[in-house]
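Support reply, case 0932

Customer input (verbatim):
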Amino acid sequence: MRRALHLAEQPIWMIPLILAWLSLFHAPLLSDGVSFDGRVVINEMSLTLMEEINMKENRMNSTPQFPQSLPQFPQSLWRASSEMPSFPALKEDHTTDVAIVGGGITGITTAYLLTKAGYKVTLLEAGELFVGTTGFTTAKITVQHGLIYHDLVTNFGEEAARLYYQSNKEALKWIIQTAEELKLSCGLTSEAAYLYADEGDEKTLKQLEDEFKAYTRIGLPGEWQDHISLPLRVGGAIKVPGQARFHPLQYLKGLLDVILEKGGVIYEHTMIGEQVDKDGGKLTLYTEQSKHKISCRHAVSASHFPFYDGGALYFARLHAERSYCLAIDPETDYEGGMYLSAGDPTRSLRAVEWNGKKLVIVGGDNHKTGQGICTHGHYENLEKFAGELLGIRGIPFRWSTQDLITLDRVPYIGKTAEDEEIYFATGFRKWGMTNGTLAARMIADGIQRQNNPYKELYDPSRFKARPSIKNFIVHNANVAKELVAGKVEIVHKKTQDLEPDQGAVVFHDGRRVGAYRDPEGKLHLVDRTCTHMGCETEWNNGDRSWDCPCHGSRYSYDGEVLEGPATVPLTRLEAEK
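Our regenerated output:
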């Protein structure tokens, strides 16, 4: 069954918005889900545009009751338990061999490898180090990346699936060896990883059985188990021994020490703009608004969403998902192991030591950025799950994170053009500890002109037809829907309706704007139109941020950029006096 949104039935002012977006696509590609014959075709799994608008309005006008056991504000356990180094902003033009944009695990590991190899390296971070995904991870170091290997065998072939496993296995070993060589106190602990299907979920159990068959075909040493040590009823599970967990920031601080010792330079609060000039073998990067320029021979985009597109259309080939974490003090003993559910909703568990206690990190409840329920509800879902499973004495931390996912679920790592010394690493699909490390190793090999056996598998310019075309259509049709829906949503709330520490879309001065009243009562207003491509951001109550449902940009309550692809803040508006 298909339902059509006929352009002839829409208000005249809406038609250019729809047509402008659809004109980005080639009509032949859209025949399965979207056609350019005067209508937008939506399959039976989709909602009509007005249904989506009504859902947005209901979410916006609802006022959830938050349980007192959850912390009032999000805070990452990793950041709270680390003394964070600080570095100056770039205040003049700068010359280096390698400019690395992004201060997470990929950027820092790349800088570590290249400074050790004798290169002059500069690391540039838009905000502070570790404020991106690396500082808000579950920090599992494993080759078990959910249900992935059966899909890889089906869509890429058995050899490619084997290479994916081997590359992540090597990254796991490299992290362990590096931590041991540097004698880092980073909580590195060997653990088995488990992927399980809930009892009664026959569809997921069949997928898990197919996954186990793929393990056998590519030589991944998994063990099938009918039961797990958790008090959960499962239909089956795959155990992978010899995996690990650690404290990611304590580990990366050890790498930073080596980078600085070897002459590496680090700048924080230095956002790099989209412009890159090329002159022979020289590249010139510019800080936002072209205040300063960075001259280099090699540039690395390790900034989560690429700072430079170069015609690769990353905004159309990546989508952003948010997920949530609680660090709980359990009432019952946790026997260890790193667990992940194969079905939905996703549930993840692992232990962590904090202040002499053994806490458990409970994660999951994924959703596309800007398109979830009231975001605090995701934390409540995790609290309910953890309480029923282990009991809860307390919840000292809660946090969320954002991950980018490619069309075929394999990261983009490498160069999009052989004649350009600009390297990319993105789309780690929630598995950044190994994928980010292997990306750094691959990029370091490329800069040093060393062969790498995984270059073709992760090539950013690839386009695998079977999953990619379908996902390209679905993702960008969803973007088009969000673009239009955000422009026509009905808003009833006024600024005077906001309580302290409450945000919402409000009707103010004759138009829809974003508003947040802070705990002291000060009102902050922004034009919530995303500065990337014009979608309307939505209020994320759990994290006090404005999130774009189209490509995943995120902004603080007062409009500052938290996550790309946007680089320009939201426009601040004058509040009433």
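We compared this against your earlier run and they match. Two observations from our side: Confidence is low (pLDDT under 50) at residues 1-68, 470-491. The chain has three domains: 2-46+474-488, 96-447, 495-573. Please reopen the case if you see a mismatch on your end.
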